[in-house]
Amino acid sequence: MKTWEGLSDIAELVEPQSTNRDDFIQECTTYRLNGVVAVYRTAASVSVTGLWDEELVNALPKSLKFCSSVGAGYDQIDVHACSARDPPIKVSNTPTAVDDATADTAMFLILGALRGFSYGISALRKGQWRGGNGEVAPLGHDPEGKTIGVLGMGGIGRNMKKKCEAFGMKTIYHNRNPLSEELAGGAKYVSFDELLAQSDVLSLNLPLNKKTRHIISTAEFNNMKTGVVIINTARGAVMDEDALVKALESGKVWSCGLDVYEDEPQIHPELVKNPHVMLLPHMGTYTIETMTAMEEWCISNVRSALETGKLRSPVPEHVNL
Ligand SMILES: NC(=O)C1=CN([C@@H]2O[C@H](COP(=O)(O)OP(=O)(O)OC[C@H]3O[C@@H](n4cnc5c(N)ncnc54)[C@H](O)[C@@H]3O)[C@@H](O)[C@H]2O)C=CC1
Ligand SMILES: O=CC(=O)O
């Protein structure tokens, strides 16, 4: 890629040769990688290295000071193990570049889940028009007048809010702290419990970490409106998938729209069987324009680190590192 090659004006570029984690750990000790200062980490590299957990982070070359990772989510990297190294490995992600495409995906899931479009789409493809065997697609719901609750009102959540307004939806949100009025743009800050109780559609837009894993589970579903619609474009494990399946079965949750799953690429079989739910295979940023923008953002972090000693967009945990 041109932008990557463009870095050769300021650095020697090397690419690891390994095809599995053990070989990569071994390769980190070789002369070729020993001396590497900054890493451009692609999303696909996880299939070779596995997670950047404590073991892997501690095996990385001692010379390494920066990791620029593609993607807004960085849950595959143990950022605390990176900070604990001496010197620390500073980590950056690619926020902002993902906002439009991921919010667009969320809108597709919101409309599809509210309207029950998945049912119609699969019936039609089976030659059954709106249904077969005596069953017809249930009537859906309009977005107009519905309250969307955003859990994690960051770049994507705020982008979604604007798009939801065009569909006549009202936005409430919960973050650990309220946003400035300017950033909130008229969305109302509510407590976590109020968000659960008041949302007609609940959208999960917060990062996955130890504190947010299964932040939505049985107790939280019990506190929601009956007939709520759940949208998840964040990470599968922020929600307890087994609890979601039970809440769908009981009718507590009317439908859901999911782009992400607890154990990708595995999907809970009951979700796959359910004709009513909208499911996508993690395609939030899967466009030429957005993936290009993410890669360029990521490489700009490498350039900034090499030229100034600072990453352009360090992850929140590393802003003051
Ligand atoms: N489906 C896909 O393809 C994509 C998924 N993502 C996922 O979406 C997530 C959000 O992305 P952005 O909006 O760019 O991140 P962001 O960092 O801009 O926003 C996250 C928001 O969540 C809030 N938050 C953090 N912990 C919280 C907690 N315990 N309770 C309530 N709020 C909390 C933060 O304060 C922040 O406002 C990413 O972490 C990533 O996992 C991002 C891009 C594409
Ligand atoms: O899942 C995608 C990301 O950017 O995070």
Automatic annotation (TrEMBL):
The keyword Oxidoreductase applies. It comes from the Eukaryota. Its EC number is 1.1.1.26. It is an enzyme of class 1 (oxidoreductase). Keywords: Oxidoreductase. This is Glyoxylate reductase.
